[in-house]
Amino acid sequence: MVIVLKNNYDQVQLDKLTAWIREMKIEPHFTHGESQTIMGLVGDTSKIDIDMLGALDIVESIKRVSEPYKQANRKFHPEDTIITLENGAKIGGGNLMVMAGPCSIESEEQLTEIAMAVKKSGANVLRGGAFKPRTSPYAFQGMREDGLALLIKVKEKTGLPVVTEIMDYEHLPYFKDVDIIQVGARNMQNFELLKHLGRCDKPILLKRGLSNTLEELLMSAEYIMSEGNEKVILCERGIRTFETATRNTLDISAVPLLHQMTHLPVVVDPSHATGKAALVPSMALAGIVAGTDGLIIEVHNNPQKALCDGAQSLTPAQFDELAGKIAGVKAVAYR
Questions:
Q1: Distance between CA 329 and CA 98 in Å, rounded?
Q2: How many helices (H) and strands (E) does the chain have?
Q3: What is the pLDDT of residue 249?
Q4: Against a cut of 0.85, is the pTM above it?
Q5: 231/12 Cα distance (integer angstroms)
Q6: Band of residue 51 on the pLDDT scale cut at 50, 70, 90
Q7: 259-280 b/e with 16+ CB inside 10 Å = b?
Q8: Is 219:69 a contact under the CB 8 Å cutoff?
Q9: Which of 58-67, 120-129, 148-157, 243-252 is the least confident region?
Q10: Fewest 10 Å CB contacts: which of 173, 231, 237, 258?
Q11: Tens digit of pLDDT for each residue in 216-253?
């Protein structure tokens, strides 16, 4: 249920209303916008008398929310959520964040070279995998804690915020200096992990599962938000369909649809979506036209010898060329 308050509401009356609602084991969540204040109610609202609420002097209107995701719902929070990193980089509300770097951290030299290159080209955030979930148990699993240490070292060297994937909530202590924690597609419905991430004060990049619906993605975001962490970034990274020409099928329609359904920022991952470096630029630009709030792109200084996903990685030179096109398309699409 959503209660829209009148602009000149009385604080004493609001305090009484809030206390009454909490007595019924319903938790109110407030959104203070430029033109109105919204009270979203999470819990069993069936016991609330809507007519009685509507008669209160401080209430402008009341809406019932039928969707199972409440806090992620745009009805609860009409204005776009904007997430700001410690260095001032923003995502959401017309702020485009570009995250770039290698699929997997291989060495300090490799990561430093790529980080310096993508920063020069305009990337806001450095991505790099330390813990790597792989389909085959025999494939490279990442440098793990050593990789995270290198990522933080390069962060300090370049000044770029970093995003990297977590696979187990027991690893959370290792992520204290990570700016954005990524939840991979395979862990989108790892609800215990999501609940633990909901208790930390860091932005969470939540990737859509390989065969999950948009509602299921938002319900996973709800797990994080229900624990108190509202800094959630959604990521469309391609879904599994009958098509085999690409690694996955990029659901570009998910971007505008999610913007209708939720106030959370939406990111596109053209690298995992296509699995082919030649397709990454066009899909990245398509994401911008569709209204994405960010891009996460794999860049490697020697894709042919990459230990992980070299086929979908751009070279620094290719990324630099793409960055110029991104700026041009953004200037038109974000008017």
A1: 14
A2: 10, 14
A3: 97
A4: yes
A5: 30
A6: confident
A7: bebbbbbbbbbbbbbbbebebb
A8: yes
A9: 58-67
A10: 173
A11: 999 999 999 999 999 999 999 999 999 999 999 999 99
The pairing of strands 180-183 and 232-236 is unpaired
Backbone angles phi, psi at 249, to 5 degrees: -110, 115
- The pair phi, psi for residue 27, each rounded to 5°, is -100, 120
Determine the longest span between alpha carbons in the chain, in angstroms. Answer: 69
Distance of alpha carbon 63 from alpha carbon 308, whole angstroms:
48
Contact 268, 294 (CB under 8 A): yes
**Cα separation, 35 vs 179, whole angstroms:** 32
- Give the chain's mean pLDDT: 93
Pairing mode, strands 90-91 and 83-84: antiparallel
**Amino acid in position 72:** A
The alpha carbon dihedral of 323, 324, 329, 334 has a sign of positive
Q: Which of 119, 139, 140 is nearest to 130 (CA)?
A: 140
**Per DSSP, which regions of 222-332 are E strands?**
232-236, 266-268, 294-298
Q: Nearest-CA neighbor of 294 among 125, 111, 179, 175?
A: 125
pLDDT of residue 140: 60
Q: Length of the chain, please?
A: 335
Question: What whole-number distance in Å separates Cα of residue 130 and Cα of residue 136?
Answer: 17
Q: Encoding tokens for residue 73?
A: 């719902």
CA distance 175 to 153: 13
Bridge-partner residues for 162, per DSSP?
A: 126
The CA distance from 255 to 219, in Å, is 17
Local structure of 182: helix, strand or coil? strand
